[in-house]
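U., I forgot to send this yesterday:
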Amino acid sequence: MATVIPIRVTERAQALASEVLNTGDIAIDATAGKGRDTAFLAQTVGPTGWVHSFDIQAEAIASTEKLLVASGLINRVTLHHLSHAEISTALPESHRGKISVALFNLGYLPGSDQKIITHPESTSAALQSAFNELKTGGRLICVAYTGHPGGKEESQVVEKFAELCEKSGNSVEKIGYTAHQPKPWILMVSRH
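Result:
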């Protein structure tokens, strides 16, 4: 009998992004964290693409910048030391409405103060802002965690956003979602 190795939700989110992301595209990492998603996006869009990476924590921006410099990817990324709720105001006019992928990894910065988390209010605004900036066929991917303080409430905001997107005719998929279970899940919305 074969051993099944479970894929991490972050790897699954990146795989979903790679299905629609091409060289020369523009992407958003709404939660820079340690920089792994930003580096993945920057590598995938290539030297002619661009990534906008957001985080409110200076530590996250510094960590992301260090990884990007070490990987030779810094020249295709704008680091925004801002809340992800400010996506629409931070994007240059030339990138507005042209986003191929917006990737969210909610919760807290691994290895840091777990009291500093993303919040339902800013996440709700950020999801809508990022979705509004997607091009037709673009994809919003959000990893939601329910097991930490505040995670359940934020997950409910993600669920409500999914319902609104579905009602407006967009393709919505909840991957690994189980109501009332304290485990991470992925929301994927494709803009019609």
